[in-house]
Amino acid sequence: MSRSATRTGGSPRIERDRAGIATVIAATEDDAWFGMGYAAAQDRLWQFEYDRRRATGRWSEVIGAAGLPGDRLARRIDLADGARADVEAMAPATRRAFERHAAGVNAAAAEDLPPEYAERGLVFEPWEPWQAVAAFKIRHVLMGDWQFKLTRGMLIAGIGVEAAAALDPPLLPGLALTVPPGAVQGPLDDATAELIMASGREVAEAAELGFLAEAGAGSNVWAIGAERTASGKPLLVNDSHRAVDVPNAYWQVRVSCPEFDVAGATFPTLPGWPHFGANGHLAWAITHGSADNQDLFVEEFRDAGAESREADGWAPVQSRTERIAVRGGAEELITIARTARGPVVHGDPASGRALSLSWVATDRVCRQFDVLRTMIDCRSVAELLEVQAGWVDPVNNFVCADQRDIGYRLRGELPERAQPAGMSAPVPARAGGWTGRVPESDLPRMINPEPGWLANANNLVVDANSGPLITRYAPSPFRIERIGELLAARADWTAEEARAMQLDTVSTAARRWAAECARIGPLEGDAERTRALLAAWSGDLRDGRPAAAYARFRRALAASLLGEEAAGALRGAPADGVAVIMVRLVNRATLRPAEVDREVLVGALAAAWRTDPDDWTDLHRLRPTHTLGASAGFADPPEVPLPGDGDTIRAAGYALNADGFDVTLTTVYRQVIDFADPAASGWVIPGGISADPTDPHYADQLGPWARGELLPMPVPES
Fold it and tell me: Which positions are catalytic residues (predicted)?
């Protein structure tokens, strides 16, 4: 979209810096939200279109039959009606923000459309406030445990309860915590096993088309208290990890009016800064909470799907038929059904059995969007933590700082369950669903912890045996381990040193294996060659040859620990669900390497050797891809070689259950906030502010991002 469309006079006024990042200056709050929507649409209108079509199951209208798996799933999730209800429930000021933001989007769209519309022959439909809610939810629907529980159900169906349990070890004690101090299902009948296997393949097909790529989200955040900085004022540091979208998931903007002045990164479709922002008095950032706030239920139906079995008998099923239009093909009819537990997301009720989804974001009217408006008025850490009580989903580790304090709380809602220990896979609906919500007062929070800093890297928040169940599938503990090492090592932190720490590529997991390799030698043949290489290694994944050998070793070890029978059962399963199982197996082996069978260990070391040495960054590359792909003729941003892996602070994860080592998860927004010197603050994304492939700001931040640089961030001053 032409940058000449920038508004330069009147209210709102939109100014842009060298990277094209907008500052919206408005005389009224109404104008501020209008200007934010206008600037967002100038930059990212195609992203608006992409997100609303994903959310409403209309992507097939753009790309044809390839979009059908994702569209079927999106229709079944059934976000539209709930999103409309959420808007109706908003406080007047919140709803006004959504309405004015939408008006700005539509005003920009009326002036110019990005090239994708002409290429696909599309007509822009007016943007509506409820679509912002639906777009936000579709970006987070698979960040719960849906696909992990489905994958575990496939494993139980394929290899049995006991064998599946052996591949799902309990979390080890003694792992790093943010806040310092079960049972399995019985055997599945054939019909349920077949349903679960087919359901897993449905999610996998949708994921391969780019649908819900946010399933593997992570992040780092740390706040350094005043007593541990050179300036005597806090620092807030964060980087968010997701699959890299083109355009990037996050959009940088500052919006200033008499009522508020905020700079941060947000979703362009949303009026507010739910994840990252600064308002001159304080700043905030989040990591993904990895919370267990979704469940899948095996529903029983009769009368061709007209009724579902409940604890006290049979109840009517809400259902309707919708049409999915397909570019270049015949339309498809789909039945949308809902039981007392939630929408039917897999299977056909008419067959007598299907899976429904309970999710805290959709099982009742969601009033969390009022938090977007109230949080930007806060003036202290204590106040900001308090207003997060209204947040629902996604569950986040919410970290903030002001001129003197740092704070943390787990924000979001967790369900209370009739049978919490047994819900790590799809469970029979008749066994009981949710009974309420975990009281907000039971969720952890703290201000100014004793170490003088606090951090989270998607690790466990509290001991798994204390307090409410938060997560079953906490990611690797190694990033938080390294963050803690570095933060504890000094008490004179500056913004520049914090930025440099974001680029650290030392893996404490790799160091453990280096130590184990030093302990077990010598071996023979290729196993000895790999062992000797790793034994002499520092664990820094900038080191080309040992880093490449280590990655191949991890993959071979994961495959051996999983085993051929389980791998066969999981063929066609959701990729992220399989990855979680493999990562947990490797993590447990990494934490207790002496317990790994010697034959398995030697075999993995031998498989990792290559006569011709590889450089890790030759194998390990980020390959950003436009949403329409090469078929539409739009240029992708350039490939970027990256150091690190999923266990390093500079995160650049790859899939253990894939062939190559392409980066599948990395930093999509990096930020440092300096309360002593706001001008020293910075931000950057892996791409550009514009979604238009013909725009000079399409990928101009990718180079600085890859080099570890930050762009100046216009943090408001108090």
Answer: 219
